[in-house]
């Protein structure tokens, strides 16, 4: 029971004895060290045994709805970097209905609310600060990209856009982009979502698989172990959903959904080319530190 509670996020994040509770025979009093010993002993989790699929999807849906409400209804006047966001999430203020945000402001709020969304995953309660910084920097922009594409897809837009309807490609860079490149950066990911006719439940579980990525460079061994188990939970849940929903076609549907991750990576490469164009045509808006840091990852 302890291992189940820990893996679902009900364990402590810090150890008062710097990880030496086992040596000091105090391990039963320290949830973090007790959980780490479970991992060291090779304990694994059978997702179907411990995780109720409908409850998991409902929890993800609530968290995503909260993220969306904050994105659409609030703004942040601070200019934090990633380390400052991890230490203390900045205050949000409610914005008026007629207040318009610039592209850079929308981009900042997308990254900020996505970070808060990711921080509510179970692994965030178990990882050390250094590992949190690594996984946030590696996955936030990709996650925000998928979220933005899904929002655009849900309103039947042919291209990825900000909530105010503006294209993600800055106006001053359009003359320097080929038609093929513009089509790729604005519509390739949307096209994949349309092709799959992706459902909300699939989006939520796929996003979770994307977030819990143990293959990220510079993670500690402990952090990689925690993320490996967490990703297995959501991968298994997505596979279970596909089997229930599509039955015999479930395995192929599961593979098709995972292929979205490849398209996201290609989209991120295109965004990198857009950023490179700023070398020759500097942006007219100043991007906040958090966005600049995440874009450089």
From TrEMBL:
One function term, GO molecular function aspect: sequence-specific DNA binding
Domain Nuclear receptor residues, every copy: 1-50
Boundaries of every NR LBD domain copy: 78-297
UniProt entry tagged with the keyword Transcription: yes
Pfam families, per database record: Hormone_recep, zf-C4
This protein's UniProt keywords: DNA-binding, Metal-binding, Nucleus, Receptor, Transcription, Transcription regulation, Zinc, Zinc-finger
Entry keyword annotation includes Transit peptide: no
Protein family according to the UniProt entry: Belongs to the nuclear hormone receptor family.
PANTHER family: NUCLEAR HORMONE RECEPTOR FAMILY MEMBER NHR-9, NUCLEAR HORMONE RECEPTOR FAMILY-RELATED-RELATED
Name of protein: NR LBD domain-containing protein
Species assigned in the record: Caenorhabditis nigoni
Lineage of producing organism: Eukaryota, Metazoa, Ecdysozoa, Nematoda, Chromadorea
Gene behind this protein: Cni-nhr-9
